[in-house]
Design goal:
Blueprint (H helix, E strand, L loop, with lengths): L3 H48 L6 E4 L4 E8 L2 E7 L2 E6 L3 E4 L6
Antiparallel strand pairs: 1-2, 1-5, 2-3, 3-4
Length: 103
């Protein structure tokens, strides 16, 4: 038969271990749900957008230049930004593709 004070201290020790585990796990869950997961999803959408670029798409570059893709070769795009003015740029320099309603 264990004394009451010993049993109470063992329950308290188990409670403190549980609270310690929760104290360590909750911040990881918080960072995963609010920071890491949304950032990974955004990066995945951007990669899909860059892979889906095709000739004729109206795009906006990271620098804010609006133009139309006239040629694609591997990782290089040729973008027409004005009549008889074309620039070569990296695929990663595209910020977003303008939709038909934006054009």
């Amino acid at each position: 038969m264990t004394p009451i004070w010993l049993a109470a201290s063992q329950e308290q020790a188990q409670g403190s271990v549980l609270s310690l585990i929760l104290f360590l796990v909750i911040p990881f869950v918080f960072f995963y749900l609010l920071l890491w997961r949304p950032q990974a999803q955004q990066q995945k959408r951007r990669e899909q957008m860059l892979k889906g670029l095709k000739k004729g798409d109206r795009v906006v570059t990271v620098g804010g230049i609006h133009g139309e893709i006239t040629a694609i070769k591997d990782d290089t795009l040729t973008v027409r930004i004005a009549d008889k003015v074309e620039v070569r740029m990296s695929r990663s320099g595209v910020s977003h593709v303008k939709g038909k309603e934006e054009a």
